[in-house]
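[Automated response] Your request has been received and processed.

Submitted sequence:
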Amino acid sequence: MLSRSSRLLCRRYSQAVNFRTNELSPTQHNDDQIGLFYTLKPEVCKQLFQHGGFPKSFMKQTKTFTETTLMVRRPAIDLMNCIKASDLNKPVIRYVLYGEKGTGKSLTMAHLLHYAHEEGFLIVHVPWVSEWLRRVPRHKEMSNSQSHEGFVDLPLDAATWLLHFKNQNQTLLKNGELNINKEYVWSKREKTEAGAPLSELVEHGINRVKYACDVIDALIYEIKQLSESRKCKTFVAIDGFNSFFYPLTRLSTPTKKTVKPEEVTLTSSFKELTKNNWTNGVILLTADQLAVPDDHQESYLPKYLLRKEGFDHLDPFVPVEVRRYTDKEYLSCASYYRDRLWLRGPPEIDTELKFTSACNPFTFMEQCAPL
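Generated structure:
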């Protein structure tokens, strides 16, 4: 344990650098806040990120720090300015975040999700595509699709995602204008009438897991129609989007045949959503090396990670690189870690950590943990 004098030294050092901003709304963030941390209210975190959106290492850190803070960084500010300046009456613009491992792509997306929430967007967020296709073999959760021949459903994953969608959009789903355009017949006894609230469609997928994947298909169609008719504006955010285009998954049929990504109904649903054939929306994606196996991580550039099929699918898109910390950002982060007693020791150690971490945010966080 550090002595009382050492703790005071850490706090005095951190207070010497201004590392926080009192501006808690992303809609008000600008160049003046770059490099500063802002705090998310617990109720916002619960609504937006209860079912995913933060990396696991970051979640552990928030529990240790007893608060959830995000650094305002240049890529997020640039994207907010682009969204504000864009004409939503034109076809949706696709933005692709890319960068080295650990530079903060997922947290930049989280910052923009908070911005979209504050701006009143309907949010369609996939926290991590690899959870569906690569993380764990899901033999028990797979079933042959009844509506798409040759495809497989991941019903439990789909129902969990619908719960995530419901939670993120709990306020907007109470809007009386968000009604579905056509009738959906699920079985001889079950159907969702045309004109029913969008929330009824979502609830059906959550309560009747068997139909969850078909409900997502219908939901995406309806969201595009509602956006086109100006009844809502939609913010699509998919982390690890390039995983949809890697040739193999860890899913396999009972006959041991490996399932390809394009044979999964969830893949086709979200690939349909990321086409630019609709308006009144924004699409934000990440191309991440961690979304694919180690043997396919030679480059972090989108053209490499998305492969030809993914690149052609998104072309044209706006690439936005998330870089390592600048000097200002590094100093701000070091000051924050000292304030939270995550980084201890004499101030001189900061110079060494800056060198050994190469200003990579994740590496810096890991190296501070035992100090």
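Summary generated for your ticket: The first strand starts at residue 37 and ends at 39. The two ends are 11 Å apart (CA to CA).
If you did not submit this request, please reply to this message.
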